Amino acid sequence: MEPDKKQADSRPLEARAAVLSELVGYQEGSIVSRTIIDKKTGTVTLFAFAAGQGLSEHTAPYDALVYVLDGEVEITIAGRPLHVKTGEAIIMPANQPHALRALTNFKMVLTMIRS
Domain of life here (predicted)? Predict the structure, then answer.
């Protein structure tokens, strides 16, 4: 997959439609994120991972929903690797170790509800 050619749209999302995959762009060798909702009760964050980039194993005190907007990722939950691709979603359960590694350039929406 090619890096995004255009600049990601940085306008606020309130009261307008947007294509989520266009709100965050790929950057070679990096992970790019953009939080679109940040409340006491939870967050919604967009991520763009360059191929090969990832997050090392960690835990979170809340369930987290990952929805893949573009590309493919390997998500390991409690030692079990899972291949997730465009259009698929997975829940990473609270307090279970998880990690991810971009198999291709990959974008996701991460939704974490804290209550």
Answer: Bacteria
Place of tokens 């090619």: 2
φ, ψ for residue 40, nearest 5 deg? -60, -30
Q: What is the pLDDT of residues 50-94, one digit of tens each?
A: 999 999 999 999 999 999 999 999 999 999 999 999 999 999 999
Q: pTM of this prediction?
A: 0.87
Which amino acid, residue 26? Y
Nearest alpha-carbon partner for 26 in 16, 34, 36, 18: 34
| Residues near 22 by beta carbon (within 8 Å), at least 6 away in sequence | 4, 6, 8, 9
